[in-house]
């Protein structure tokens, strides 16, 4: 039976290059890779992944605890998943989706017990999250995309909501706005302790209060209709609002529609700034939305790299990475005109 | 060392129930599952997935050849991936993402050579697709989401573009429209032989010709700006157009914006029907888009089920499944008013 040595000899490369071509641990040019594959075919060499994983006691599989269909809207989630899969691939690992369904504790325990994955990425983290407790007890390497209330000893990469909200307010206040309302995710997500809802809400309250400005904030279900209803209620209660910060893509589009129906022009009468969104979603709006784009690609890359270091024992420090959303000024924010 | 028998005894269930709880092959109530997990913990039982896969010569892993970031916009792709992951889970399998990057032949060969996956799902299929040739030669079980030009002997689940376009035209013609333009995906996707672009374009030409109506069709890059430009050009060349069929979400939103800027009201002056789209994208539009929703969930389910039957040798016939998009009438189509 042919060995990796035989393949290397026939392809005219080193054994490590053959290994790199198979695992993706280091880059190999397409030409070299093609030569190695040709040699493997000629010799009938089969680098059985299962046999390799038994030898190394590693499967080179990373599982992503995947929350399921309800997240389907978010362009950010898809960017994150794609980035995580591509980063894993570059590092010689594979990303496996592990959908949670309705039994998150059972599914997390199944994942731990099956020992199929060397490590776990957890997304949609809540402040108090039983999945995190289970993973910690099991001593499975894991990294959070998001973070629990007390994440001191845990690896995480999360959006920096405090800086994001501060930057959003700096942009709007710099344009002369003072009556600024915040439309966030649903009350249900707050009650569930969903990190972004809790942290963005707290940041908005703190930064407005520090500036001596009134705090007007609403939770809103994740639908265009709910966004319409919130806008109607808001302007009834606070007719002097001149700017809106939203963190809820479907509601943002509903809010824009309701403002149009009510004869309020964006941005002449009302500025709208959508945070933790994505340029792809912004491009669907007319006028094009000013957004603060969620760093889905960066979080996927950092989270996977850190997790692999943790798996391989090469990590020098706990990952505590907070990345703010980036301001992308488009057509829905402008200087305040109303007195 | 504890065995599965010991776990079953302590949990008060049969050995097969323990197996079902671990593999997900059949449903087990959360209560039973919790009891089994408690027994496993008490006994320190570790059902090593790798050992099991060696015993069965199967890994119970399905790889999804995943095209990468450029698809990020599509709500349909995320629905498909989520449905595929959940169906695999229900059947006791795992879905692994295998991003292709720039070297699709090399990555496909790597996937085949590593023997990590029992079977492969291929998405974004082109009429002439080298990945399909490689998989066929390797005798790896695979299922196409989409289909090649000659897919006679292959398992596939695809959108039925012919029925979709016919149903779209029936809806618009039933409303009195006769001057109907089609805005599709980019010329680049046509040149690459991307199945949806080719098949929807052919269907539009055939069904319009059969009805004795003029064929006005345009390719359009996947951006709102390109959608705007196409609309400007279309109405310059064909001022009598009263209805638009689009198959390109970003372009659809650009087209709607350009129609608004030009003072053309939707649907009073122009009806807009977006095909192979999703209700989630439709809900972002104002007015809410009439769409034909792509069957992402159905394709994920059928594709995975068929692939597992193929892997396990229980498939009775080749899968040739064509599912049309479903018409969802919302606020952008109405009877023709212009004479």
TrEMBL record, chains A, B:
Keywords: DNA-binding, Transcription, Transcription regulation. It comes from the Bacteria. InterPro entries: HTH_LacI, LacI/GalR-like_sensor, Lambda_DNA-bd_dom_sf, Peripla_BP_I. The keyword Lipid metabolism does not apply. Residues 2-56 form the HTH lacI-type domain. GO terms for molecular function: DNA-binding transcription factor activity; transcription cis-regulatory region binding. SMART domains: HTH_LACI (SM00354). This is LacI family transcriptional regulator.
């Amino acid at each position: 039976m042919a060995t990796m040595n035989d393949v290397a000899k026939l392809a005219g490369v080193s054994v490590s290059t053959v290994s790199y071509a198979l695992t993706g641990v280091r880059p190999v040019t397409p030409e070299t890779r093609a030569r190695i594959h040709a040699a493997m075919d000629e010799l009938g060499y089969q680098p059985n992944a299962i046999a390799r994983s038994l030898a190394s006691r590693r499967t080179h599989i990373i599982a992503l605890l995947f929350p399921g269909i309800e997240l389907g809207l978010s362009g950010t989630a898809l960017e994150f998943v794609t980035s995580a899969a591509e980063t894993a691939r570059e590092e010689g690992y594979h990303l496996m989706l592990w959908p949670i369904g309705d039994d998150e504790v059972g599914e997390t325990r199944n994942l731990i017990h099956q020992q199929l994955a060397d490590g776990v990425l957890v997304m949609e983290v809540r402040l108090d999250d039983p999945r995190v407790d289970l993973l910690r007890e099991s001593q499975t390497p894991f990294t959070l995309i998001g973070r629990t209330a007390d994440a001191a000893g845990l690896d995480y990469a999360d959006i920096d909501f405090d800086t994001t909200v501060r930057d959003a307010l700096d942009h709007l206040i710099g344009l002369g706005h003072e009556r600024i309302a915040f439309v966030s995710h649903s009350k249900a997500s707050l009650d569930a302790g969903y990190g972004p809802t809790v942290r963005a809400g707290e940041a908005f309250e703190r930064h407005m209060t520090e500036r001596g400005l009134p705090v007007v904030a609403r939770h809103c279900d994740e639908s265009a209709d709910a966004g319409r209803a919130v806008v109607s209620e808001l302007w009834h209660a606070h007719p002097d609002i001149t700017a809106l910060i939203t963190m809820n893509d479907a509601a943002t589009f509903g809010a824009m529609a309701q403002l149009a129906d009510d004869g309020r022009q964006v941005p002449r009468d009302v500025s709208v700034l959508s945070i933790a969104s994505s340029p792809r979603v912004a491009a669907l709006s007319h006028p094009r939305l000013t957004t603060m784009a969620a760093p889905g690609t960066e979080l996927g890359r950092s989270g996977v790299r850190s997790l692999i270091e943790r798996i391989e024992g090469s990590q020098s420090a706990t990952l505590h990475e907070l990345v703010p959303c980036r301001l992308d000024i488009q057509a829905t924010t402008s200087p305040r005109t109303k007195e």
